[in-house]
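agent> fetching stored inputs for the calcium ion docking request
agent> found them:
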Amino acid sequence: MHILIVEDEQHLAYLVRRVLVEERHSVDLAHDGAMGYELAASGTYDIVILDVMLPKMDGMTICRQMRADGVLTPVLMLTARGSVEDRVTGLNVGADDYLTKPFAMAELVARVNALLRRRERGFDTNSQLQIADLVLDMTRHEVRRAGKIIDLTAKEFALLEFMMRHPGQALTRTQIIDAVWRYDMEALSNVVDIYIHYLRDKIDHGFPHALIKTVRGIGYKIEAS
Ligand code: CA
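agent> prediction call returned; pasting tokens
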């Protein structure tokens, strides 16, 4: 899918782009509102990720103007922490969803995918990830192994979803932290190990084949055998 990111915080813009490119999207960046509006108004994107506070033209104005121009591209608005006003205004000017900063990259990916699915409603969209007898259902927010429902916390679910999106791929602790924890958080170096331990307890413990593997010197991966 073709995604536009309008965000003046360069570090965040590049991080979001990297994560979406890893998800096989093609991504354009605009670092100010005027350029963002010009690109968004072309109507050639599948999703626009729009920051509210931008130089030259703010995100609310861009969104309102896009809708006035008849551009129906789904908009995911990035709002400031706890700003209820931003959220309400954002939805009023025609944004489809919003994400409060700071957010975890896995949450951004989940919102983007939800918007893409909503856009393609009517098609048989596959909202499940499966590895061996482990099934993660994103729509129902449900995980089953061998048919048995497994209770996961939000963070455990996000970690498992991230790993299942990259089956068989050795993921470093840094990649996992970037995707699953908030980008502004000084994550403890062992937070990944702790959460992998929780996940193993829940999805591998008591089953004949462990799906989560330690990759010595790198990190972790999930695979069927
Ligand atoms: Ca900004």
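agent> quick read of the result: The mean pLDDT is 88.
agent> awaiting further instructions
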